[in-house]
Structures
1.
Amino acid sequence: DQAQYNQMHMLSNKSSAQNVKTAEELGMQPAKINTPASLTGAQASWTLRVQVGANQDEAIAVNIFSTNVANLFGGEGVQAAPAQEEGAQQEGVQPAPAQGGISSPINVTTAIDANASLTKIEDAIRMVTDQRANLGAFQNRLESVKASTDY
């Protein structure tokens, strides 16, 4: 079988070992993303680029965005209440509930705030859905490259 011969010849060919260099030999360090500690201080987005061919421009890439609350809601948080004159009452305005020091982009104390919060949540879900679609398309491209190189 030709495919088996090619695979065995490639694995036993000593010249291939001379042409293959490790990441350390090339002065590159692979990113470790398998532990939460490695993500401390991570950027809000980064690009994963995978070389899929022999030439420099034969690569596929995908942008990966952080999907934590801070990045999904774009730095929004509890707004400080406007300063009032002492003893003055503002009609229809209630003080913001205590959040225990954690700022939250979601506020459901009034119907208007709840509707605005729903819009923010829908936007965040859309961002996560778009990210999943992009990652799925990237996976499909990787599988296509792998299938086209199998012989």
2.
Amino acid sequence: MVVAILYTVVSGFSTIVYTDVYQSLFMFVSFVIVAGMGFMVHLPDHFSVFLPGKTMMRSASGPGGSGLQTVLATKSEREVRSQTFLAMVLLSLRWAFSGGIAVMGIHYSMQHAGVVLDPERVVPVVISKVLPVGVKGIVLASLLAAALTTFDTTINSSSSYWTVDIYQALINPNASERQLLWHARLSSVFVMLAGLFLSLDVSTINRIWGFMAISMAGGLIWPFFFSWYWARFNALSCLLGVVTGYIAAFSVFIIVVKAWTQSLVLAVVLVATLPLIYLKWYVKLKDRSAGLCKEDLNASLLGSA
């Protein structure tokens, strides 16, 4: 973590790209091996589930977070299409890896009577009990690489929100490159420290994953969705939607609860969406063309972060 934060803060986006490409070599080799091993495992038919609705909703919201950052780093719409297609192909391998681990874990528990795997410990059990020598090392290296790539990209994209979308756009439009650089570095350190602080309340993987995938997703999906399809949706409305989404998500995470229910998810979505409806009907905003604008493709929007 210390190494990742150092090269993220000091070198910025370009170094992250190069390190991610290098680290991805380990990841994709591991993904293909584990996915292939999982594909050869036979499970009963009731383990097969197809969820087309989830896939449709996920794709309709467009790229968000670090995905949007890579889109804005391209130089033309043609590069956006090429980059997006490549990302779809490569990222599909990680779910094949996850599926392979899950399948091998289920198969292991079925072969050993009385063994019921804790979902929180499936990965270490599969690595230690199922994977052969040699593959274990590759998988461990790939998991470390995956953690580093996720860490540095998330830190960098989060700092760019403050540096470009808030500080430069709303607070100091005439900020120099040096000022933007220091704000990017300081905000990167702040994001890391905030993450460490939040991790103190995380006792299981399911707790933090439920927070990110359910509460946070419910609070943030609409700002990202409207940014692609609503012409009146500008930076101010996106900022308001993201802030209210964060507040609702963190309230559910910290104050409420141990179990996720449909009503809680709907409450987070409602709180995040109401300010957007208010902006639509009661605030005079300057219209812009819908979708990805030509000026949005300028890589300089990322600033020095």
